[in-house]
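Feature request, filed as a ticket because there's no other form

It would be nice if the structure record came with a short human-readable summary line next to the C-alpha cells. Right now we just get the raw output. Example of a typical job, pasted below so the devs can see what we mean:
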Amino acid sequence: MSSSSECRRLLMFRSFTINVTLVLVLKFHVLVVDELRTNFNTGRTKSYEWRFSQLQNISRMLRNKENCITEALYQDLSKPELEAFLVYILVVRCRITFKSVCQI
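Raw output as currently delivered:
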C-alpha cells in the first residue's frame, strides 16, 4: 500500500474520530442543559434575594475570618500573608462587591 493512501486513510479516520467526539460532546451538552432546565422549572432553585444574601454572608465571613484564612493558607500552602490576602480574600470580596453593584 502506498504511503499517500495510508495518509489518506489516517486522515479520514482522524476526521471521523473528531466528528464522533463532537457529536458526543454536543449530545452531552444538550442533556445537561435539559436537566438544568427541568430542575429550574421545579422551583427548587433559590431566589435572587437568597443568593444575594449568601454573597453578602461570604463577604462578611471573609472580612471576619481574614486572619484565620491567611494563617491557614500559610500553613497549608506556604502562601505569604500579602499574597493570601490579595489573591484569595480581596479578589473574592471585590468580585462579590462588583456583582452586587452591577445588579442594582
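Something like this underneath would help us a lot:
The first helix runs from residue 3 to 41.
The mean pLDDT is 81.
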